[in-house]
Amino acid sequence: DKLMLFSSGAREVSEQEEPELHALVDRLVQQADLPKPKVAIIDTDVPNAFATGRSPNAAAVAVTRGLLRLLNTEELEGVMAHELAHVKNRDVAVMTIASFFATLAQMVMRFGFWGGGDRRREGGGSVLIFFGASLLVWAISFVLIRTLSRYREFAADRGAALLTGSPAALQSALLKINGTMHNI
Fold first, then answer.
1. What's the predicted TM-score (pTM) here?
2. What is the 8-class DSSP label of residue 52?
3. Share in percent of the chain as helix, strand, coil (round to 5)
4. CA-to-CA distance for 120 and 118, rounded, in angstroms?
5. Backbone dihedral region of 90: left (phi > 0), alpha (psi from -120 to 50 degrees) or beta?
6. Rounded CA gap, 154 and 35, in Å?
7. How far is the C-alpha of 177 from the C-alpha of 64, rounded, in Å?
């Protein structure tokens, strides 16, 4: 979570700095039976939010200033509930583990592509078979990771709707974010 917050330019904020945002997160974590994550803000006009952390005990949620200005309280609650659903479902850990095999296969492919074996000598065919198998694993992993990612997003949407009891607020927020992103 610290690395992700640092790389995105997020700054952790206290309850004194952002009392409404902290109050909203407090309500949601109480309803979701989660420990309270770190709350951070990114100083950019691009409307966005994300959750990070390997577990609910080491999590953070971040929002941009653009998102805070764009959404009303109910819409922001829907977006934050969506991010907290990612935390509750341990989606960061799930996606990290899922991408491990694709990353490994990609490294093997690069090694094979940049001269990982002498194809003129005896046994050169085994290098090509290994490279081909790695390519196949990478291609399958690529599709599966994209599918899993979409599924996790839909699960977080469902979790947010159940947590807030207002799927329309999340839908409204997503429509506003999409329209604003187009303009930006």
1. 0.82
2. E
3. 70, 10, 20
4. 6
5. left
6. 23
7. 12
pLDDT along the chain (184 residues), means of 10: 88 95 96 96 94 92 96 96 95 87 76 59 67 80 90 94 93 88 68
Q: How far apart are CA 147 and CA 149, in angstroms?
A: 5
Q: Which two tokens stand for residue 13?
A: 């904020």
Whether 1 contacts 59, CB under 8 Å: yes
Q: Is 83 a catalytic residue?
A: yes
What's the pLDDT score for residue 117? 52
CA angle 93, 98, 102 (to 5 degrees): 135
Largest CA distance in the chain: 70
Name the catalytic one among 18, 75, 83, 153: 83
49's tokens: 């939010």
